[in-house]
Write a structure and sequence with these properties.
single chain, 533 residues, alpha/beta, 6-stranded mixed beta sheet, 24 helices, binds FE(7)-MO-S(9)-N cluster, binds 3-hydroxy-3-carboxy-adipic acid
Length: 533
């Protein structure tokens, strides 16, 4: 069945008002004529969304992977517990004496009495206890929903404790879960505070020639380890990774890098833009998912530095690495060629992983993000704002709607600066321009829509997260978690591509899920009990 028929099969059963809204978030793709898609809007109440909250985006995603900040969740214990290492972000302290607090789950364990009488005293006591126990370089406080509702001032508490300690950076995040429409608001809040309180605090500079930061790489399943090794092989110094396998000292020093490489644009574009304006560090997008994209991204770095020695070293490394990936692709492709995939993940991965499937000769039938913005789908022409010159931390933000002329001038300037360096600048770097004509794009897919898609189109593999995994497998289709990688990975870089090829070939050729029959499908008594409408 073609996707044009989708309305009847998937969305027509919604009440009229819901149908009208959801329809704007789903479309059949045409890369030649990228259309407007609804994104980053509130989920309709009653719909089961796959999204997470603002606290998750701030604490779990952006700051969670940093090992030597004591991250205290100010709130009920569940918020801290369920955001504790479930993302499989790994870390590797420099040596045995280096601090690593990631194995601890710090929380104020807020109770009913704190809701009634306030929780600031509880928070101060928790910060003091952490300081006395560990004497960390930094303590960060993360607000959960009740904190905003009762009005605890985490920033005032942070200022007071910082002044009292004198040797510990204490800062807070107003990342209450209910803010914004998704995790995305949490990314923004995290970026702003890390920029304000940490980046720029250490001006020391190594004398290496090619110094870059990698932004939006969180070391899920060890991805950052693979990329660290790859950069080292090429002779490129990684000053800071935000925030996979990172330390607060790396962040403090990040502004001294020559170039920012953005891997996940969605979660960290704000830091890149602020660093460009305040410290003059240019940025460009990269993608180290897939062998082809990894090679292209390394070449981008070579082109930026315009150094013949670096360029030839990069070519040597690519040639060497490609031997491995070509060999693996040839081995696994006979089992994967012509198979189909669907990808519904938070932000950039639903886009980036399509390249890996293409390397396996697999077709992406449908894809979408949980919380990305229109620019992630449609490309940079819809970038909502662009930041321009400022010497202070108050950066001027140009909005396309408010000041279209200056906005487009600023965009042109950035484009010219990149082109001058021989780098590519595309107005259409979003997912839709790279997807096939006729593929389906759906934003913030609901659980119901997902089940319908699987039922009707039966992909060979469905990629999503833990909330979707077991429902899809019960429908007979293998599900690969592209958040946590299940128990696998790394999947980034060339070594990661080899792991992914192997894993997917195995998954699309197993019929184990199809063999499982739910008891209610064969036993009438159960079927009556668990019958669905
Ligand atoms: S590691 Fe990243 S790549 S940071 Fe982001 S948008 Fe989440 S935690 Mo889950 S897997 Fe996912 Fe992306 Fe960037 Fe991860 S696709 S939803 S907030 N994400
Ligand atoms: C988050 C984190 C998450 C959840 C993954 C999932 C992750 O959004 O809070 O739903 O399986 O990658 O761990 O995206």
């Amino acid at each position: 069945m073609s996707f044009e028929k989708l309305d009847d099969t998937m969305m027509k059963t919604y009440p009229t008002k819901v149908y009208r809204k959801r329809k704007k978030a789903a479309m059949v793709n045409d890369p030649g004529e990228v259309k407007e898609i609804q994104a980053n809007v509130r989920t309709i109440p009653g719909i089961i969304t796959q999204r997470g909250c603002t606290y998750a985006g701030c604490k779990g995603v952006v700051l969670g992977p940093t090992r030597d900040i004591v991250n205290i969740t100010h709130g009920p214990i569940g918020c801290g517990f369920y955001s504790w290492l479930t993302r499989r972000n790994q870390t590797r302290p420099e040596n045995e004496t280096s601090e690593n607090f990631m194995t601890y789950c710090f929380s104020t364990d807020m109770q009913d009495s704190n809701i009634v009488f306030g929780g600031e005293k509880l928070l101060k006591d928790a910060i003091q206890e952490a300081y006395d126990l560990f004497h960390p370089k930094a303590i960060a406080i993360f607000s959960t929903c009740p904190v905003g509702l009762i009005g605890d001032d985490v920033h005032a508490v942070a200022r007071e404790m910082k002044a009292q300690f004198g040797d510990c950076n204490v800062f807070g995040f107003s990342c209450e879960g209910y803010k914004g429409v998704s995790q995305s608001a949490g990314h923004h809040i995290a970026n702003n505070q890390i920029f304000k309180h940490v980046i720029g605090n250490d001006d020391s500079r190594s004398d290496s020639k090619f110094r870059v930061n990698l932004l939006g790489e969180y070391n899920i399943g060890g991805d950052a380890f693979v990329l660290e090794e790859l950069f080292e092989k090429c002779g490129i110094e990684l000053v800071a990774t935000f925030s996979g396998n990172s330390s607060i000292d790396h962040f403090a020093n990040a502004h001294t890098a020559d170039l920012n490489l953005i891997m996940c644009h969605r979660s960290i574009n704000y830091v890149a833009e602020m660093m460009e304006v305040k410290f003059g560090v240019p940025w460009t997008k990269v993608n180290f998912i897939g062998a082809e994209q990894s090679a292209k991204s390394l070449r981008k770095v070579g082109a930026y530095f315009e150094d013949p020695q670096l360029i030839s070293r990069i070519e040597e490394v690519i040639a060497e690495e490609m031997l491995k990936t070509d060999e693996a692709a040839a081995k696994y492709r006979p089992g994967t060629e012509g198979k189909t995939a669907m990808l519904f993940v938070g932000g950039s991965r639903a886009h980036h992983y399509q390249d890996l499937f293409a390397e396996l000769g697999m077709k992406t039938l449908a894809a979408g993000y949980e919380f990305a913005h229109r620019d992630d789908y449609e490309g940079r022409r819809v970038l909502p704002s662009i930041k321009v010159d400022a010497d202070s931390r108050n950066i001027e933000e140009l909005h396309i709607e408010k000041d279209p002329e200056r906005y487009s001038q600023a965009l042109q300037d950035r484009k010219a600066a990149l082109m001058e360096k021989g780098m590519e600048f595309s107005d259409y770097e979003g997912m839709m321009a790279q997807m096939e004509k006729g593929a389906l794009v759906i934003d913030d897919i609901s659980h119901y829509e997902m089940e319908k898609l699987v039922e009707v189109y039966k992909p060979d593999v469905f990629c999503a997260g833990i909330k979707e995994k077991y429902a899809v497998q019960k429908m007979g289709i293998p599900l690969k978690q592209l958040h946590s990688y299940d128990y696998g990975g790394p999947y980034a870089g060339f070594d990661g591509a080899v792991n992914f090829y192997k894993e997917i070939e195995r998954m699309v050729n197993t019929n184990v899920w199809g063999l499982i029959k739910a008891p209610w499908s064969t036993q009438s008594a159960m079927s009556a009990k668990y019958a669905r409408g």
